[in-house]
Amino acid sequence: MNVPMKALSLSVVTAVALMGCGKEAPPPAPASQAAPAAPAATVVKIGHVGPLTGGIAHLGKDNENGARLAIDEVNATNPMIGDMKVKFELMAEDDQGDPKVGNTVAQKLVDAKVAGIVGHLNSGTTIPASAIYNQAGIPVISGSATNPTFTEQGFKVAFRVVARDDQQGPAIANYLLQNKPKTVAIVDDATAYGEGLANEVEKTMKAAGVKVLPREKGTDKTVDWKAVLTKVKGKSPDAVFYGGMDATGGPLLKQARELNMKAQFGFGDGACTDKMAELAGAAAEGLACSQAGIPVQAAGAKFLAAYKAAFNIEPILYSPFTYDAAKLLIAAMQKAGSADPAKYLPVLAESNYDGASGNIQFDAKGDRKDAEITIFTLKDGKVAPTAIIKGGKSLTLDEYAKAAAGPAK
Questions:
Q1: What is the pTM (predicted TM-score) of this model?
Q2: Does domain 166-291+373-405 have CATH number 3.40.50.2300?
């Protein structure tokens, strides 16, 4: 093996130079250097609260699904707040529809330093919990609490993206009034939601000159209504309105028909679900009910497809609104450049957001401006919208869709 003299000379010179420095030759540099690790995303927590156990767990889970879908979609975009890479995390809590449990989980979320809250489902849990969020300065948006008291407390942190009971009550009452009842019975479940909605129905009925029988009550767990219904039947009402949820409204309607009551039955949004047909059977046919917002069928097509793909079921009731509530919180944080509630709250109050449930803006109290009300009837085991009331006008589903689309270009 022959080594060229020039190469040998260079090798010897290099070796001598290194020996003179008392150092070993450095190892060859790797062909490529590993890229520095990207900084981890900062976690921003958003709370959701609703009943995940008990008779209306299906509605609580539907609400949670809406918020979870929103957060998963945002996280898939590698979101930023200002110059900070973030990852949103949903903290889902079960309040069991119980105000005491609701307060406990509200404090748990405050202690966990969540940046915002979506919930609660029920007015009876939302109202007391809102005082805890207000004390901590954390914004809360409900996608389903309809009792006016929620936003009448003067809390700057409280918002809702559905209509109020003093809008919903007159709508379902006026629908029942179309059949010109002379006597109406009203029953409620003694919750802030059920009683509050029933009160609004009663006001409208009395203003129309209808005789309203003395109020009958149960609880949010009553399933045996026979004593109440027997008393009501003896007074021969032309219509009966029940303020409560489907878990109790279904048994009430079934037992009323078993007692051969012929009255027309009306319900609020808590009992405006297909679950009524499951619980009441054939007795549910023909019931009328209201929802404090657009029907699920009128929600954005992108939302409907994404919900079905994510959970392999159809949305039930208010998940488009909890979806929008979560996105509203995030949009306000991003626009403010901060997840600090004190900094993004003013931006949230000034929202002008196009979501799955339409355009959302808030009034000074935190209520949704120009909120819709939908009237449904149940036919062939399914509740179907018959009219959407917006701005005092009653529209069919097709008319509403055309109005929402705007003028043809």
A1: 0.85
A2: yes
Query: At CA 96, angle to CA 323 and CA 382, rounded to 5?
Result: 60
DSSP letter (8 states) at residue 76: T
Q: Which residues contact 67 (CB under 8 A, 6 or more apart)?
A: 46, 48, 90, 92, 118, 322, 323, 325, 326
42-162+297-360 is classed CATH 3.50.30.10: no
377, 386 contact by CB (below 8 A): yes
The full set of domain ranges for the chain reads 42-162+297-360, 166-291+373-405
Asked whether 22 and 83 are in contact (CB, 8 A), the reply is no
Going residue by residue through the chain (409 aa), what tens digit of pLDDT does each one get?
443 333 333 333 333 333 344 444 455 545 455 556 667 899 999 999 999 999 999 999 999 999 999 999 999 999 999 999 999 999 999 999 999 999 999 999 999 999 999 999 999 999 999 999 999 999 999 999 999 999 999 999 999 999 999 999 999 999 999 999 999 999 999 999 999 999 999 999 999 999 999 999 999 999 999 999 999 999 999 999 999 999 999 999 999 999 999 999 999 999 999 999 999 999 999 999 999 999 998 999 999 999 999 999 999 999 999 999 999 999 999 999 999 999 999 999 999 999 999 999 999 999 999 999 999 999 999 999 999 998 878 888 888 877 766 654 3
Q: Do domains 42-162+297-360 and 166-291+373-405 have the same CATH topology?
A: yes
